[in-house]
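User: Sequence in, structure out. Go.
Assistant: Echoing your sequence, followed by the structure tokens.
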Amino acid sequence: MSAAFLAGVVAGYGVALPMGAIGVLIAGLSARTSLRVGAAAGLGAATADGVFAAIAVAGGAAVAGVIAPIAAPLRWAAAVVLLVIAAVTARAAFRRPETAAVEGRPATPWGAYAGVLGLTLLNPATVVYFAALVLGRAGEGGGVLFVVGVVLASASWQLVIAGGGSLVGRWLTGSRGRAVTALVSSAVIAVLAIRLLLPS
């Protein structure tokens, strides 16, 4: 197996394994809707990781230098989006099921994929992470295999998260269970959004 591919697998797990706001969002989508929707959302996150890895392979240090000045505005934008998601999720906890069925648009796999892809792309730290790893491998080559390794590792972990959310969703199928999971998910996403704004 190629060293570049293995390096990509390790890098992909390194960025995907920490359970952040995107992971909570994916698990929550699976729990409240279906495994298909959660899996599509997870693949959106994995696609974004692949995009960032490809940018890092193509541009390395130059990309990290361009992103650094706009990192703060991107972090604020991501926090605002996450807070809106948290508010919408919490609101759903207080609606009666029949009202939610009439008012709420059902989540679709494509919508979940595009939404999570867009939200994950707001995290500039990921491309800096990949750029640092690529620079550390300078001269080793295998850029395409590195990106493939990143995507496969990230996708496999996101699908585990989606599967876990779906399993929890089956256990909590009643209206009370849905309300509790929506409130917990909303609170966690809000806390993670606020943490984005705190100095590291």
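User: And one key feature?
Assistant: Residues 3-197 form one domain.
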